[in-house]
Fold each of these.
Amino acid sequence: MVETHARESHAMVRDHEVPLGIYVGGSWETTEREFTVVNPSTGDVIASVSDGGPADGIRALDAAVAAQDEWRKMAPRARANLFHSAHRLLVSRADAFADIMTLESGKPRAESVGEFALSMSFFQWYAEQIAHIHGTYSTSSSGGFRVMTTKQPVGPALLITPWNFPMLMNARKGGAALAAGCTVVLKSASETPLTAALFVSTLEEAGFPPGVVNLIHTSDSASISAPLLADQRLRKVSFTGSTAVGSILLQQSARNIVNASMELGGDGPFIVLADADVDLAVREAVNCKFRNAGQACVAANRIILHRDIAEEFTEKFVAASRALPVGDGFDGTSVVGPLINARQRERTERLVEDFQNAAGATLLLGGKPIEGDGFFFEPTVLSFPDKKHEFCNDEIFAPIAALYTVDSVTEALQFANDTHYGLAAYLFTTDISRAITLAERLEFGMVGVNRGIMAEPSAPFGGVKSSGLGREGGHDGLDDFLEPKYIALTVDESSIE
Ligand code: NAD
C-alpha cells in the first residue's frame, strides 16, 4: 500500500518547477521522511526531497520488472522516436537544467551548460543506435547447423550515480540502459537529486511509459541498493562513484551473479615531456585539474614534468592557476566553484597539511579554505620532492595540483603506471611515435594525447584495474546493457533435394 503525504510534491526552484518526490511506476510520491538539498556556494537549503527507504526501492523494482517485457518488445523505431522527442524536450529545458545543476552542485553555470550539452550528445547518440542493434548469421564450423546471434536487453537495471556530474552520469547511464531496452531504477546522489528529478520528469512528459524509468532519492543509499542486489529480479547494476563503494556493490552483486558495470575512481597522471608544447600543456592542465573544482574522476591527479620543461611549466601553471576566479557559479565570471560540502572542504585542508608535513611538498599557491559563505577553497599548487610518499596514489578530488619532476620518458611511464587505478592518463609530446608507444604502454582505459578533456559520446569511457569494469559511451556502452543470445538451428541441406 502506497502512503501519500500532505507535503509539497513540486517546488519552484529558481523559477523552475521541480518534483520533490520519488517516481515509482509512473507516479510521483512523497514519503514520510525528507532530506534537504544544500547550495554549496552559500550553504543555504534549496529544497527538501522525499527520503526513500528499502520498501520504496523494492516497489520501484516491481514497477521496472512489470514494464520490462513491453519495453523490450517496443519496435526499435518507436523507441528511437520516443528518445528523439525526449531529446528535443530536454534540450528545450537547457536553461532550467543549467540553473538547477549549478544550484545543487555549485559548478560554474558555464560548466553546467557544457555538461548539459555533452549529456544531450550522449542521449542523442544512443537514440541513433536503437534501430541499429544487429545480430549475425553464419554456418557452424562443422556444417550442419546455423549460428544465429542477437542481442537482448540484460533486464531491469539499478543505476547509481554521483553528484559531481549530476546530469551527465544520469543521461549517459540512463541513455544506454533505456536505448538497450532495459527498464531502470535510478538512485541519484543525495547531494544532487533535483537534476535527476528534472531529467526523469522530462522523460515522463515525453511519453516514457510508467515503470520504464523509476527514481529513488534517499539519504541512506546502502539501504536501497543492498535489498535490490539481493533480489533475483534485478539483472544489472551500473555504478559511478568511489572505488570503495564500487567494491561493496560488486561483493553484493556476486551473490546473484548480477551483471555489473563500475565507473570508479582515478589517479590521472598528466605527463609533459621535454618536447611538448608547454603553453598548450599548461592550458589543458589548468582545465583538467580545476574543472569542477578538481572533483572529477578524470582530473589530473599527478602532473609529471620532464626536468627540461619543469621550471617553465611550473611558472606558467602557477600564474594561470592564480588567475582563476573563484566564486558562486551564477556570478558570470567564476571558473572555480566550491567543494560539494563542508566535509570535503575539511578533507582538502587536511590533504594540503599532510602533503606538506608528511610528504615534504612545497606550497606554491593557495592552500586555504576561503572565508565566508559556501565551501570554497583556493586553487592550490604543490611541488613534490620525490615520487614515493604515502599519499602519492590517493585520489585528490579537490582543487589541489600535485607537481612531480622526472628525468626520462621511461621514468615518467613507470611512475604513471605505479598506481592501482587505471582510468585516464594524459600525455603531452610533439613526437608521434613516442605518443603512440607511450599511449599503448600506459595501463589506463583512456589516454589523452595533447588534450586534457576526452569526453565523447562515440568513445568507450572507462577504466582498468581499480578504476572499474565495463565502458560507458560508444557501442561498448550499449553492449554493457545487452546480452548476446546464440540460437543454433539445425539445417539439413538435403531437405530440398
Ligand atoms: P560515492 O561512492 O560516495 O557515491 C556515489 C554514489 O553511490 C552516490 O549515489 C551515493 O549516494 C552512493 N553510495 C554511497 N555509499 C553507498 C553504499 N554503501 N551503497 C550503495 N550506494 C552508495 O562517490 P561520490 O563521492 O559521490 O563521487 C566521487 C567518486 O566518484 C570519486 O571517486 C570519483 O572518481 C568517482 N567518479 C567516477 C567516475 C567515472 O566515470 N569513473 C565519474 C564520476 C565520479
Note: The pocket of nicotinamide-adenine-dinucleotide is lined by residues 160-165, 187, 189-190, 221-222, 225, 240-242, 245, 248-249, 263-266, 297, 395, 397, 423, 463, 468 (CB under 6 Å).
Amino acid sequence: MKILSPAKINLFLQITGKRPDAYHDLFSLMCCIGLYDTVSLDVGVEETAVSCDHPHVPEDETNLAFAAADLFYKKLKKNDGVKIAIQKQIPVAAGLGGGSSNAAAVFLGLNRYYGDPFSMDELMSMGLLIGADVPFFIFGKPATASGIGEKLKVYPGLKKLKILLVFPGFSVSTAAVYKNLNLRLTKCKKKLKDSLLDKGSFDPRCHLCNDLEAVVASKYPVINTVKTALLDHGALGALMSGSGPTVFGLFSDSDKASKAKHALVRSDDTWHLYLADMITQDDGYSISDT
Ligand code: ATP
C-alpha cells in the first residue's frame, strides 16, 4: 500500500499561552498542500521496521511513522508488524509537518488495511499521543486548530491559491524556537481581533501572521530576505510556516507563482523552491493511495 503524505502550512499561528508540560497553547489556521512524501506499507510482517531515503530522518522507534504503527497495533491488541518505507520530498525540520504527516499516513493506511476498526475521532486521539500536528493530518481538511493543535474545526473560507515554498537550506529545532519565545512580544492577537478569520473570510493580504516568525528571523535574517523577495515578485502575502524556516508566498495564479520561482532560483542557489497547490475542502481527504 502506497500513501501520499502531504505537507502543511500555517496561515495563522498565534501562541496563546504556555502549559506546564512541554507544549504551548495556540490558535492556528492550517492547510495541507500538494507537496508529498510517499509512505509505503508492507503489512503482515513479524516486526515493525522503518526506512527513509533522507539522511536526517531516524530509522528507529523515534521515527514518528514507526511510533504510530507501534501505537496502532497496541490499541488493536494485535501482534503484527509493518514494514514502512518513506520517500521524502518534504524538507525535514522545516515547519512543514513532514514527520507528523507520515505518522498520520500510517494510522490511516493501517486502519484501512484492517477494515476500519477505529473511528476518525479515535485515530485523532491516538495521533495526539504521537505529536500535536498528527490529528490535523488525519482530519485532512483546512482547519483552525486550538488547544495544543488537537481541537480542530473545518475552515471553509479558504480560496485556493498557488503556493511557492522557499526552504532556505537549513533546519530549525521546534523546541529551541519555543524556548526563545517571549509571549509578551507576540503580535498575532491584534491581527486576530482585526481579522475576519472566525467568519471564514481569510485574506492573504492582511491576515497572515505567525508569532514564531520574529524569534526565528532574529537568529536567521534570511527569513525576512525571502519574504521580501516573494513580495517583490508578486506574492499577495508571505509568511514563515510553523517553527520555520520554510517561508511560503501565496499567488493568485500559477503563472505568477512560476515566474517568481524562476526569479528566486537565480537570486540564491542555496534556496530550495517548490510550487504547490492548497488542498481545500473540495479535494476531500488529503491522504490517499497513490
Ligand atoms: P515539528 O512537528 O517539530 O514542528 P517540522 O514540521 O518542523 O516538525 P519534521 O520534518 O516533522 O519537521 O521533523 C522534525 C524532526 O522529527 C526531525 O528532525 C526528525 O529527526 C524527526 N522525525 C521523526 N520521524 C520523522 C519522519 N517520519 N519524517 C521527518 N522527520 C522525522
Note: The first helix runs from residue 64 to 76.
Amino acid sequence: MQLIRINHAGAPRWGRLEEGTVHLLSGTLRGGGLSDSEDTVPFDPAVLLPPAEPSKIVCVGRNYADHIREMGHAGPGGSGLPAEPGIFLKGPNALAEPGGAVEYPEWTENFHFEGELALVIGQRAKNLKANEALGAVLGYTCALDLTARDRQKEDLQWFRAKSADRFCPLGPWLETQLDPTDLHIQTRINGEVRQDGRTSHMIFDPVQVLVYVSRYVTLEPGDIVLTGTPEGVGPLRRGDTVEVEVEGIGVLTTPIV
Ligand code: MG
C-alpha cells in the first residue's frame, strides 16, 4: 500500500494512493492513528508533503563500508568498520516535501547529496527486540540527507551541517509492504548515476538500527530513521536536480536552486 501526505484544502491529510486516486484518511500518526474516510481526490504530485510527522529524525552515519572508505575513516582495530551504529539527529525543521526546491546555502562551499532509505515509525517503540523491530515501521520511503561537508568537518556537533532548514527532503510516499533488506538504491544528479548500491550492503541492517536507536530514545509514531548512504557522495551545484530512487518505492526529486 502507498500512503501519501498531501496539502488538502489548506491542511495536511494522509491518503491511500490507488491507481491515481487518493482515498483520504482521517487523523494523524501523532494523534492516535489513521482511519478510513469516504472522501477521494485525484492524485496531484504538486500537493505532496513529506510522508511523516516527526518529533525527530534519527540518522545513521557511516553505515555502508564503501562509503566509509571513500570518507577516509578508520574504525576500531583498523578494520575501517564501526563497532556500533553512529547516530545523529536532524530536527523536524529539516524536512522538505518531495519535488520541492532546496536553496544552496550561502554558508557552505561543499554541499553534498546522500541518498538513503528512510523508515517511518508507526507505533511508539522503546527497547525493541529484533523480532519486533520491523513491526514498529509504518512504511519505507526515500530520503536525501543533505550535508554541508565543510561545516561537518569543522564542527564538533553536526547541527548546522546536517540539520539546517530543508536539509531532509523525504518522499514521495510510504510503501508499507516492503522487505527492506536487499533493495537497489540509486542517486542521480541531472540524470547521471552517482550512487548505486543495495541496502543489503549496510553494516547495520534496519532491524539492528531500530534495536540500537530504541535503546536510547522512544521512537514515536511519525518519527523518521535514516539508514545511511552508499558510496558516491559528492558536491552539488546550483541548478542541479537530485533524484533518489529506492527499488519498490519510487523517486524523490529535489531541485537545488
Ligand atoms: Mg547520511
Note: The chain has a mean pLDDT of 96.
